[in-house]
From TrEMBL, chain A:
Stated name of the protein: YcjX family protein
InterPro entries the record matches: YcjX-like
Taxonomy, superkingdom: Bacteria
Pfam families in UniProt: DUF463
TrEMBL record, chain B:
Subcellular localization: Cell inner membrane
Protein name stated in the entry: DUF697 domain-containing protein
UniProt xrefs under PANTHER family: UPF0283 MEMBRANE PROTEIN YCJF
InterPro entries on file: DUF697, UPF0283
Lineage, uppermost ranks: Bacteria, Pseudomonadati, Pseudomonadota, Alphaproteobacteria, Acetobacterales
Pfam family of the protein (one): DUF697
Transmembrane segments: 66-90, 96-119
Family, similarity comment: Belongs to the UPF0283 family.
Region: Disordered, residue numbers: 1-41
Key words of the record: Cell inner membrane, Cell membrane, Membrane, Transmembrane, Transmembrane helix
Top-rank taxon, per record: Bacteria
Coiled-coil zones: none
Organism (species): Caldovatus sediminis
Protein's membrane topology: Multi-pass membrane protein
Length: 467, 312
């Protein structure tokens, strides 16, 4: 396991002092981490957030709940001009243009990190303070491949622990089928297999193919390491040529895999977690609960387990060191995305289901002093509520325009349970894939924001107290 | 699985509707496009979020603890001293009428001067508030408020009086902004730059010959404050002490962003002038060049802070 960073405290203290000085000058900085598993809708969420905040800053009522929370003090919002950052810049305009294009395109799978900062100019709360000019709050946003988030729990595990836990998981349920060639390969490896590259590359390729099959064929989410599924712009490097072994403590190949495991985690820590994930103040965890529900019991339970693993690995600012340096997350919002895929009366059930699913992680966050809230939202609303007749009975449905064919379709999303469903719920046995809808009519420049459901309520809860 | 009678069907379904286009698809064809656009839902979002649809919330203001403390102390000092002075005047009248009249005159003059100073402060702060209102109105596209503020501002600023008729004829914030930026604001910008160059020349000269770094800083600060007040006066603002402090705070935060650049320029200038014979004078001259650059930047930042139109 890689050693923890000894200078972390010093860096946290410096960052805390810098934040305090900026706040004293009326130039607060808030780092909002938008986290979530892959395909949870992070990119669309960030695009909608930026477009709607910019429009709200221009006086449009795109975010009424946030406007109420800020007491109508938001005067202006603008994207902070680029400086000399080495990280790619998140481009909401390009995403909006693609969504508004004919034919429309949803953002592709995120392949790399990108960042963007928004500055919100606000009137001061006090009458005297008003003479000091506008206060500003800078929101720092980050988009990244969701698969990488699952490397976070690995930081607390040694190679031997990770190998044992992963292999036990691979032998269960539909994973066993997806990973059959890999399991056959590792089970056939002799004890003390030599540290040879052809062997390690073969094992890596089989393991990576298994991860892909589990993700694409079975809708599973708890798949580690994240860069195996989404290597990012740097591509596949030799430090990734490792995989779980049944006897991870020996020499030869096992020792080589253990060294590469440590090197991989050190690299992820240095390139991703330390600079971007160590310090943030507010956090939104996005979950596509409905898709997990539609993909069957195993995928649903797997999503819940992945969420619990991630939540356990996040840093909530509860320790005395965090309090001393002013670091750590103060508010965590758990968000069920794509809420427009269910009719209005089922959105509460969607939020309640997520609440039930994340009860344990929420308790942990609460114990650490972070507030938690559960929300259901659609960052871009693509459907409207309707009624369908099924088996002679009227049922609540949603209606939208299908992305591929351009035909109007009603979708009955099934009943969304308010709690983690029991075995009888899964007995209908059919897996269902929600069709992709076309985005609604949009201004390609996003001057009026974009239609959404519940984004304003989420932002009011998440950052309303800072405005 | 058999479902309970009356219970909704559990499994999700997709039900395709007859015909391609949904009833509410109303996207207009893009100019120059061939064929009809792809059908989409239209929520009428632009109309829903238009600022005119619902009255904007009035920003709430509250008294901060420091504000309450300051106001209380002010009331006590002024109120009690006024009562004390009134008692003293009454006592003087009891002694002799001429003495009472004289004391009343002295007290009236003293309080009158204090009142005039307070009035000047309030007017200066109100001017800044007015600039804030105008900028906020331009930023959110509130034409009525932006026009009202622009007309009031133009009536008070000599450089803008020529565009008053054009401003009265404007029907949207964009044309208001265009007229202001092309006319009076461009002229004010040029005048601010001229003031900045004059201040820069003085800062350069003083820094090059001054005997100590502490004196440099003092002179730079004094000249900087004076420059900010001069630029504010160009824009029709007459800030008092509190107004100047507020303006300095706004200006300096912006100007501070160039501090890092200045450090690099300073180092480069000093590195170029490494001749030992020239070191003494040229080193100070390099510091003076940096001070002059800062003064020019300060003039630009002060002008930005005083504009009634927000920067694009």
């Amino acid at each position: 396991m890689p050693a923890p960073d000894p200078l972390g405290f010093l860096r946290d203290a410096l960052a805390g002092a810098e934040d305090a000085a900026l706040a004293l000058l009326g130039q607060e900085r808030v780092r909002l981490a938008v986290t979530g598993l892959s395909r949870a809708g992070k990119t669309v969420f960030l695009t909608s957030l930026v477009a709607n905040l910019l429009a709200a800053g221009a006086g449009l009522r795109t975010l009424p709940a946030l406007e109420a929370a800020s007491g109508g003090r938001l005067r202006r919002a603008r994207v902070l001009p680029a400086g000399v950052e080495a990280v790619p810049r998140f481009d909401p305009q390009a995403h909006l243009a693609a969504l508004a294009a004919d034919p429309p395109r949803w953002p592709a799978r995120t392949e790399d990190l990108s960042t963007l900062a928004l500055t919100l100019e606000l009137d001061r709360r006090s009458w005297f303070g008003g003479f000091l000019g506008a206060r500003s709050v800078t929101l720092e946003l980050l988009d990244y491949p969701g698969e990488w988030l699952l490397d976070l729990p690995m930081l607390r595990q040694s190679y031997a622990e990770w190998s044992a836990a992963t292999l036990a998981r691979l032998r269960r349920g539909s994973r066993a089928a997806a990973f059959a060639p890999f399991l056959e390969f590792v089970d056939a490896l002799p004890e003390g297999a030599p540290a040879e590259d052809p062997l390690s590359r073969r094992g890596f390729a089989l393991y990576r193919d298994g991860l892909r099959a589990a993700r694409d064929g079975h809708g599973l989410r708890l798949l580690q390491p994240g860069r195996f599924l989404n290597p990012g712009p740097r591509g596949e490097a030799p430090l990734m040529w490792f995989f779980p072994l049944p006897r991870p403590g020996g020499g030869g190949l096992a020792e080589l895999c253990a060294r590469r495991y440590d090197a991989y985690l050190a690299d992820q820590r240095a390139a991703f977690f330390e600079p971007f994930f160590r310090r943030f103040d507010r956090q939104a965890v996005l979950v596509d609960v409905l898709a997990a529900l539609h993909q069957g019991q195993e995928a649903f339970d797997d999503t819940a387990e992945a969420l619990a693993e991630i939540a356990a690995a996040l840093r909530y600012g509860g320790s005395w060191l965090d309090r001393l340096t002013g670091q750590g997350v103060r508010r965590v919002a758990l968000v069920a995305t794509k809420a427009d895929h269910v009719p209005a009366r089922q959105r509460e059930a969607l939020a309640a289901l997520l609440e039930d699913l994340t009860a344990a992680p929420r308790e942990r966050a609460l114990a650490a002093g972070a507030e938690t809230g559960v929300h259901a939202l659609a960052a871009i609303r693509c459907t409207e509520d309707d009624v369908a007749t099924l088996e002679g009975r009227p049922v609540g449905a949603v209606r939208g325009v299908l992305l591929e064919s351009g035909r109007s379709a009603k979708v009955y999303p099934g009943e969304v349970p308010m709690r983690r469903p029991g075995p009888e719920f899964w007995r209908h046995g059919r897996m269902f894939e929600m069709p992709a809808f076309r985005p609604p009519r949009l201004d390609p420049h996003g001057a009026a924001g974009v239609p959404h459901l519940g984004l304003d309520t989420l932002l009011a809860w998440l950052i309303g107290d800072l405005l | 699985m058999s479902e309970a009678p009356g219970a909704p069907p559990r499994g999700p379904r997709v039900i395709l509707e007859e015909g391609g286009a949904p009833p509410r698809a109303a996207a207009p064809p893009p100019r120059g496009a061939e064929g009809p656009p792809a059908p989409r839902l239209d929520f009428g979002w632009e109309r829903t979020v238009a600022p005119a649809a619902v009255a904007r919330l009035r920003p709430g203001t509250a008294w901060s603890t420091l504000g309450l403390l300051g106001a209380g102390a002010g009331v006590l000092v002024l109120g009690l001293s006024a009562l004390e002075a009134a008692n003293f005047v009454a006592a003087q009248f009891a002694r002799a009428t001429w003495l009472g009249v004289l004391t009343l005159g002295v007290a009236g003059a003293g309080y009158g001067l204090i009142g005039a100073a307070l009035w000047r402060e309030v007017r200066g702060l109100a001017g800044l508030r007015s600039v804030d209102r105008a900028r906020a109105a331009f930023a959110r596209g509130d034409h009525a408020t932006a026009r009202e503020e622009a007309l009031r501002w133009a009536a008070e600023v000599p450089a803008a009086q020529s565009v008053l008729p054009a401003l009265r004829g404007c029907n949207d914030p964009d044309s208001l902004r265009a007229i202001l930026e092309a006319g009076p604001l461009a002229a004010l910008e040029a005048q601010a730059q001229a003031l900045g160059r004059a201040a820069a020349l003085q800062a350069f000269a003083v820094t090059a010959v001054s005997p100590s770094a502490a004196l440099d800083a003092l002179i730079f600060a004094w000249r900087g404050v004076r420059l900010v007040r001069q630029v504010a006066a160009l824009h029709g603002l007459r800030p008092g002490v509190a107004g100047t402090a507020a303006l300095l705070r706004r200006t300096l935060f912006d100007a501070a962003t160039v501090a890092a650049t200045d450090v690099a320029v300073d180092a480069a200038a000093r590195a170029l002038l490494t001749n030992p014979l020239l070191e003494k004078f040229a080193g100070e001259a390099a510091a003076g060049a940096v001070a002059a650059r800062r003064m020019l930047r300060l003039a630009r930042a002060a002008s930005e802070a005083c504009r009634i139109v927000p920067p694009r």
